[in-house]
Amino acid sequence: MKYEHKSVLLDEAVDALNVQPNGIYVDCTVGGGGHSAKILDKLQGGKLIAIDKDEDALTVCKKRLKGNVSFIHCDFKWLGEVLRELRIDKVDGILVDLGVSSYQIDNPERGFSYMVSDAPLDMRMDASQSLSAKGIVNSYSEAELCKLIRDFGEEKFAKSIARNIVAERQKNEIETCGQLVEIIERSVPHCSRKKGSHPAKRTFQALRIEVNKELDGIDAFLKEAVDLLNPNGRLAVITFHSLEDRIVKQCFADFATDCICPPSFPKCVCGHRAKGVTLFKKPIEPSAREQQDNPRSKSAKLRVFVKK
Q1: Higher pLDDT, 127 or 161
Q2: In this structure, what is the dihedral angle of CA atoms 83, 85, 86, 87, given to the nearest 10 degrees?
Q3: What's the pLDDT tens digit per position in 149-207?
Q4: How far apart are CA 308 and CA 274, in angstroms?
Q5: Domain for residue 3, yes or no?
Q6: Computed over its alpha carbons, how large is the radius of gyration of the chain?
Q7: CB contact at 8 A, 290 and 273
Q8: 89 Cβ neighbours under 8 A, 6+ residues apart
Q9: C-alpha closest to that of 236 among 302, 300, 298
Q10: Are 80 and 89 in contact (CB under 8 A)?
Q11: Within this chain, do residues 178 and 221 fall inside the same structural domain, yes or no?
Q12: With 90 as the cut, is the pLDDT of residue 213 above it?
């Protein structure tokens, strides 16, 4: 299958980085290389570090991207270690796109889509890891499944879905996306389904987040990323659902805040100081044109922090 991926908020994200010709930049989730290619076009003597935990993405980008670029196969949350190994102390810009690539969604073998009934229930961004969606639905307890689907999928019928998953797997192992979709459809009342939204969307999101530990350590990563920026360096983050965006928003607000002592304290004892400013009061969202050309971009939000 050909690796194809439409980079979301392409111009907006790269423009927000304010790329300097001789700067050092990191694309933490290189994917199909759209953002990276645009960054490289602006560099003259600078350097790009392209990171992804999907080896398929890196294989494609090594052929597509030309210039002073280093390719690293790992989770972006290891950014600090990556830079230390490259003997780079500080960088001028960091971009991270927290979404799943179109290639991963559209490739049936990766098992991300609820639209491909015979696809294996997988959802691993890094195919070398052991935990998969199949493992979760066939081994987690009913209580664990309910909490997972409720918390990560924000699904109000999580209890019913979890109960029916456990009941079904006692008969036969749940192996395909289609099997899981059938269970979910039986669990969600037809009258409660949102118009235009697939009833399995929230549960699949929850499983994908759990499989890839997407929310684990985002706050710690953001803190480290800001510390790795040069003065006036920028951190740009693209999110695709409220759970991610809430973490980014709260972290950026904390980074931009000075003293956090209670107002009653006569003087500051917390030592908390602002690291910089959030570039936009509200996140940048895709234009109507982009949403029409790429429906998967509709939920995307871009937030940018500038280090002082």
Answers
A1: 161
A2: 90
A3: 999 999 999 999 999 999 999 999 999 999 999 999 999 998 777 666 899 999 999 99
A4: 8
A5: no
A6: 21
A7: no
A8: 83
A9: 302
A10: no
A11: no
A12: yes
What is the CATH classification number for the domain harbouring 17?
3.40.50.150
Encoded tokens for 26 = 């990191």
Q: What pTM was estimated for this model as a whole?
A: 0.90
Q: CA torsion, points 124, 127, 129, 131, in degrees to nearest 10?
A: 40
Q: Does residue 84 carry a pLDDT above 80? A: yes
> Total structural domains in the chain?
2
> Do residues 62 and 71 make contact, with C-beta atoms less than 8 angstroms apart?
yes
Q: List own/partner pairs for 189-198 with CB under 8 A and 24 or more apart.
A: 189/157, 192/156, 192/157, 198/114, 198/115
Distance CA 258, CA 187 (A): 48
In angstroms, the Cα distances linking 218 to 175, 239, 252, 281 are 30, 11, 12, 21
CB atoms < 10 A from the CB of 73, how many? 14
| Same domain, residue pair 26 and 120 | no
